[in-house]
Write a structure and sequence with these properties.
mainly alpha; 61% helix; 273 residues
Length: 273
């Protein structure tokens, strides 16, 4: 059975991955294909929206695209930053994460190449740091704007949103982050979205910002959720994760903070054998 990591349905926390199942060729290829197609569609829609003047259209395009893709089979992340955050929180194996990131970058490259051919000349495909801002400021905004997206992703994976509102939550987080960071950094929030246009145009100005910022924000948000905010978070789980021990053992022996204490054993009545 394939380990499709759904970001929109409740999943029991798993620290140890079934590596043999996770890396079965059929399962791995289906997961990689889902990531490539989702990334192609997401980046294509965002770049198509960039033909309109201003930062509102790309932000809305990205938000609506993320909401629409949230219900696709396999629940792809379509974002290397989110995939690496899942890897750091031990929800994905290293092989599965590497295949996903490679597929996401390939999908973004295809989308950028198509956009370069069909969009009007002069369309701003490449995310750039604003002339009035520095690379450090852009890095701070990319990190900050990605945190709500990652928190929404991890929260949707642990708690089912009411009435299937997971897509709306994720889409709103993408749109809000892009609108907030857009005037400073271009509001990428997704390394693949920046990598594709950079590869086809050859423009690499401050490209490291669009990897370090979203990855840092996603990993921080993921660790914060898993160790502090998740229903099963506890101090024992935090202490066990810091030295990279197996958290599954702690979860199996420690109740969640909201769990009632175990009932005291009742004394047996006299005469019971």
């Amino acid at each position: 059975m394939c380990l499709w990591v759904s970001l929109h349905r409740p999943q029991p926390h798993r620290c140890t991955m079934a590596i043999g199942e996770d890396l079965r060729p059929g399962c791995l290829w289906r997961a990689a294909l889902a990531e490539a197609v989702a990334s192609l569609l997401f980046v294509a829609l965002v770049l198509g929206s960039s033909a309109a003047p201003g930062a509102v259209a790309p932000a809305l395009g990205g938000g609506l695209a993320a909401a629409a893709l949230s219900g696709t089979p396999g629940a792809p992340q379509a974002n290397p930053a989110l995939t690496l955050a899942l890897l750091c929180t031990r929800k994905l194996s290293a092989g599965r994460a590497a295949a996903a990131v490679l597929a996401q970058c390939c999908g973004a490259l295809l989308a950028a190449a198509a956009a370069l051919l069909v969009l009007p000349e002069g369309t701003g495909l490449v995310t750039r740091v604003s002339a009035e801002a520095t690379a450090g400021q852009a890095l701070a905004w990319e990190t900050l704007a990605t945190i709500p997206l990652a928190l929404a992703t991890f929260t949707s994976s642990s708690r089912a949103p009411p009435h299937g509102g997971g897509g709306l939550i994720l889409g709103s987080a993408v749109a809000a982050g892009a609108l907030a960071a857009g005037p400073v950094s271009g509001g990428s929030l997704n390394p693949a979205r920046s990598l594709g246009p950079a590869l086809v145009t050859g423009v690499w100005d401050d490209h490291w910002v669009y990897w370090l910022g979203p990855v840092l924000g996603s990993v921080l948000a993921g660790l914060c959720h898993e160790l502090l905010l998740a229903p099963g978070a506890s101090r024992d789980k935090l202490r066990s994760c810091l030295p990279c021990r197996d958290v599954a053992l702690v979860e199996a022996t420690s109740p969640a903070p909201s769990s009632p204490p175990p009932a005291a054993p009742q004394p047996e009545p006299p005469g019971t054998p």
